[in-house]
Amino acid sequence: MTPQLSQLASQVPGFINEHSKRRRGRDTPTLDISQYFDFSAFYGEDEPSSPGSRSRSVASSDPGLTSGPSEDDGAPSPGPSFDPYHKEAIKQIKQQDDRFTVPEREIRPKGGVTYPSNLLLDSAPSPTGSSSSSGSHVVILSNPGSPTILDAAVEDTHEDTHPLNRGRRTKPLNNPEKVATMRKLGACYRCKARKVQCDEGAPCSGCTKDAAKIQSLNCSDLAEQMCCRQQPTPAFSEIDRITCAEMPPRGKALTSSCLTVFFNPYKPSSFPRSLTIPVLHVEHGIYDESSRSYGVRGTQYQLDTETSSLNEGTLVQWASSQMMLEDNGFQSALDNLVISCRPDTLPHSDLLHKVYKLRCLYKIWSQNGFVCQRQPQSDLEQLPQEICRVLKAMTAKLIKGIENDVLSELAGKRPKTATDRLHMWICMMQVVLLYHDLIGIVSSEERWIHENLQQKAEALMNYTAVMCDVQFGKKKPTVGSEYGAHLSDRFANAECLQLQFFAELRQRNRRSDHVLTSLLAKNQKCSSRSRMGPPQKRLRK
């Protein structure tokens, strides 16, 4: 850089600073608003003496909804504090006021009537270039929660062309307290699915009437079990917590090996699918109270998590291959019916796939014990209890992630076609049988009693049975002609075995089966008649 340029560059900051001082020293010209606004036309006879005096008077007083600073440093005064004592009184006032009983979602006309996003004043051109032809007008933007005269005019103009999207009430409610209470409690599933009015009774009047129609004795107990206002809590969330708490601590690994696991002792001709589990021989240190010293307990087994390939898909395939070999009445008939359905052609293939995974994982969790081989040619022996506990813990955690999704989808779907109804019936009956079997397991073991798992399992089974009765109480599922004869035969076999299953439940007369035998077994009588052929005429001799 030349000396002239460096000298010029050093003088630039000083020149800019001096120029800024000169501009700040000049007097800023005042703006006369009267040149742009006609005060006489706006105020008429009440025109103020001067625009400046009016602006000063307006500026000298604070607005009515604000307050000035309470201290010299400009800190605002604290706002009114909320007293929790008046919370209940405010709640009662809201229940009596009709404005607070409307739904939370705003009622808007169809077609998406939106509020204007610009201000048009004195025929100002719009952003698109077109000007208004109706003269000078002002569009004021207002809060949707505080209606004004312009809002009413907008509603009047769109009333004929855009009917309301939701809401039928046009006058105050006669019973706002009852409506507020029902919106807080929520309608029961039976009334909600049938789209009938529900009340705050426990049970509601609709479930009480339906229970009286089904049976005359003990109808109050049946109505109480049928009326479900909320989806019950999933059972395997608690089972997973208990199972994980029972897991033994990890010990010191000694050697590793692999165990080939089977469900039950088998015949050589069946060749069931096996599950290979890598395990570690570990030892645990324990405290001996008699000698008051720490010792080493006998070696045990522990899952080798580093080399283990156990995942959800592997466990589902292992259980599925075992279920195909079993013949366990109605449950096996349902399993074979699901296997016969191809998931790629089902409308509810995602739900059916989840239900089948739920069933396969539950098959592993509910198994009392497994057998294993330490060597390929060795004899079968009982699988160590530590590995059984690991398998149950893994399946319980996987079921926990599927159970809530299955219940929500079953409650939300409404099948319309015959194909949809068949698939939905299969899913619902699988879940009903799962919880029916779970009741027997948790009621026979003492470690589940203090967690009320039996009551939770009964509530889930009753909830699913009510869903099945609402969907298929008046119209049973059928197999369409688009399916082959193989699936039709399996469905007919499942219906026959279902009759035997409900007949066994009636003989047991267990209290937990009350809803099943009352809601679902009554429909099987009609189904058995419908499968009978038409009566034959007697020929006269």
From TrEMBL:
GO terms for molecular function: DNA-binding transcription factor activity, RNA polymerase II-specific; zinc ion binding. Residues 84-109 have a biased composition (Basic and acidic residues). InterPro entries: Fungal_sec-metab_reg_TF (IPR052973), Zn2-C6_fun-type_DNA-bd_sf (IPR036864), Zn2Cys6_DnaBD (IPR001138). This is Zn(2)-C6 fungal-type domain-containing protein. Residues 1-10 have a biased composition (Polar residues). Residues 187-221 form the Zn(2)-C6 fungal-type domain. Keywords: Nucleus. Residues 49-62, 123-136 have a biased composition (Low complexity). Pfam families: Zn_clus. Residues 1-137 are annotated as: Disordered. CDD domains: GAL4. Transmembrane segments: none annotated.
